[in-house]
Amino acid sequence: MNFLENIFARLHVASDRVILAEAHVGGMTQAGEAASERTATGSELLAQIEAARACLRGSGLAKGDRCALVAPNSIRWTALDLAILSEGLIAVPLYARQAAGELAAMLRDAGPGLICCGDAALRDSIAVAWPDAPRLVLFDEIFASVNQAGQFASDSRAPLAALTPTDTVAILYTSGTSGEAKGVMLTVGNLDHMLSCTTARLDQLMGPRDVPADRVFHYLPFCFAGSWILLLSCLSRTSVLTISMDLTKLAEEIGVVAPHYFLNVPTLLERIRSGVEGNIRKRGGVIANIFDHAKAAWLRLNAKTPHSWDFFWLGLAGLFIFPSIRKRLGPNLRALICGSAPLARETQLFFMMLGIPVLQVYGLTETTAICTMDDPQHIEPGRVGPAIPVVEMKVGENSEILVRGPNIFPGYWKRPEQTDQVLRDGWFHTGDQGEANENGNWLVTGRLKNLIILNSGHNIAPEPIEDELLRTLRGAQQVLLVGNGRSFLAAIITGEVARGEIESQIERLNATLPHYRKIRMFHVEQRPFTIEDGLLTANGKLKRDAIAARFAFEIEKMYSKSE
Hints:
Blueprint: H1 3-13, E1 18-23, E2 39-41, H2 42-58, E3 66-70, H3 75-86, E4 90-94, H4 100-110, E5 114-117, H5 120-129, E6 135-138, H6 139-142, E7 168-173, E8 183-187, H7 188-206, E9 214-218, H8 225-235, E10 239-244, H9 250-257, E11 261-264, H10 266-283, H11 285-302, H12 310-320, H13 322-329, E12 335-338, H14 345-353, E13 358-362, E14 372-373, E15 392-395, E16 400-404, E17 411-412, H15 416-422, E18 423-424, E19 427-436, E20 442-447, E21 452-453, E22 459-460, H16 462-472, E23 476-482, E24 489-495, H17 499-510, E25 519-525, H18 544-550, H19 552-560
Parallel strand pairs: 1-10, 3-4, 3-5, 5-6, 9-10, 9-11, 11-12, 12-13, 24-25
Antiparallel strand pairs: 1-2, 7-8, 8-17, 13-14, 15-16, 16-19, 18-19, 19-20, 21-22, 23-24
């Protein structure tokens, strides 16, 4: 039984049980229902899938054709995705918030026979950017045959397309931090292995429990590999997945859902930590004093340099402070899962201090999202866990992480030369730098293509310095180091940050760094980089080349002062 057959078997078993929900907090659905009523049982999702399959068959698509999916997360997104896979088509999910020109470029590359859009605004923007686009169809048209009771007009159920392990089922476009985005092909075999690993790890996390199903909250776009894998994992297990419908109401949504776990990017966890610590500082008094002592004690214990009173302070905080913080974050939280980029060790320790483990995951789209996963019983803060079963990892030249196993993609769509550059002698060259310790837990230290090479010949990975400065600068949104071919490093900092604080924090940081890694100049830009202005990738990573080009004048001005 492949992953898709397993999901459909689960849906039939859960025909009367809610498996998906949409978090319409404080409002009404488009159909005018109460916000809490937008859910789908197994049978209701199957009905939506059959309606979508009928629409796809009517479009004349054949097995192996591409079908694009451009829409925000929703129950209908899930149904359409599963319908595409069921018909033997290749799903091409794209990020709805990307600029129309970027979407059009990826669509041209994929060459879909049909483009499914979440709303008319998306459809029209794509049509303007790509006048010769194939047929564009709206979700409302695709699901028009599903009645108010959530049933499909026909009782017939078409058999699933016959799929082999080597069949491509999706093309996911990479972030494109430098250069054009590439389509990563993923196969049935890739997903079979990955979902066997993720479901086993989630079973390990949850363990014996009294509740009938995991409660999972989700806010990251399904078009990203890790996000998609979590969706398919939840559909493969006994779970109720609630989808965020308004990122401005995340805190309210999480409070209503009260999840057992949810997937995060480091940015959100950093903001939560900053918010909690900021509120305690504002409160001041005895509570702030206890918290500061407890935090210092926790850090000392993890550094194996305890003081005699450390357990006293942690005990006080455990009685009077930590429980209320945990309750606000979610009374049922078993763990937070974090991926897409390394999480600061201090932030991981912060949540562990509160009694909430943070499980890190490392991987790329080309590795079916995951190479390593933290073991819930053996977490090492700052590291991203051991390699998943059957997957091999080693360090190559320049500390590059190399991976091979059933999770490795077969290649980039229509790019054989670029495929050959990263798949060599059976190993996938990740472009990331890292190392494993004696326990097999990996540390990701940087990215090869981001290396800054000074004119002195020193090679510098910018990420650790950027992360540390961003962590300590209140109000800062992003930090980017520059300096290729120059004599020293300089920084571009976005957000509402006082120059005096920047100078103070850079001075503090520089005192811990060798001379060639010190920051000598900085430029402050109050407006943060965004996806819409083309300076961030679809999943929020810095487009370094684009930022350097946009701020060429400011960069040159910094260096003209000293060089």
